[in-house]
Design a protein that fits this description.
Number of helices: 7
Shape: globular
Largest sheet: none
Distance between the termini: 10 Å
Order of helices and strands: HHHHHHH
Number of domains: 1
Structural class: mainly alpha
Radius of gyration: 16 Å
Number of strands: 0
Strand content: under 5%
Helix content: over 70%
């Protein structure tokens, strides 16, 4: 990736992190809150697949830790979950680029469910009350948002640039 494309991409990365954090902490009406997309897990999968060497497990963990601080919840809850999602996404990165959009959305659904279950599990281990299964609706919403966020085809320019440089 050339230096002239790195700066705009870093700005886009920073802006998307801020937007995802806001999307995760902005209060929603009680009836809509369970369907809030898992924006941060979606963002982690997107950036792991789109910019493999520029975004990884440590970045995902840091973003999760930042969410834990901003949300005032249990420190490490989202950090652990997003680090695991980042690891899984990095393992699936090459396959994901060759999947159809429906298959990609299914993988995103599974990764978001893993994120939600891990975060809920950590919360339960810390002695907080267990959440109902309604929190998994956010994973389904995130999977529906995936096709709107990115068409991950092998023709994705950033992937072609990355492949050409390696």
């Amino acid at each position: 990736m050339s230096a002239d494309t790195q700066h705009p991409q870093r700005l886009l990365l920073a802006a998307s992190i801020v937007a995802a954090l806001l999307g995760a902490i902005v209060p929603l009406p009680a009836w809509l809150a369970p369907a809030r997309p898992d924006w941060l897990a979606l963002l982690v999968v997107y950036w792991i697949v789109r910019v493999p060497p520029g975004f990884g497990i440590v970045a995902a963990w840091s973003i999760g830790l930042l969410l834990d601080v901003l949300a005032g919840g249990l420190i490490g809850r989202h950090a652990l979950a997003l680090a695991v999602v980042a690891y899984a996404a990095s393992l699936l990165r090459h396959r994901l680029t060759h999947y159809t959009l429906a298959q990609q959305s299914t993988v995103v659904l599974i990764l978001c469910v893993v994120d939600q279950i891990l975060a809920s599990w950590v919360q339960t281990l810390a002695g907080h009350p267990a959440l109902s299964l309604a929190f998994l609706m956010g994973s389904l919403t995130a999977a529906f948002c995936w096709p709107l966020i990115t068409p991950l085809s092998p023709r994705d320019r950033s992937l072609d640039d990355w492949r050409a440089s390696h």
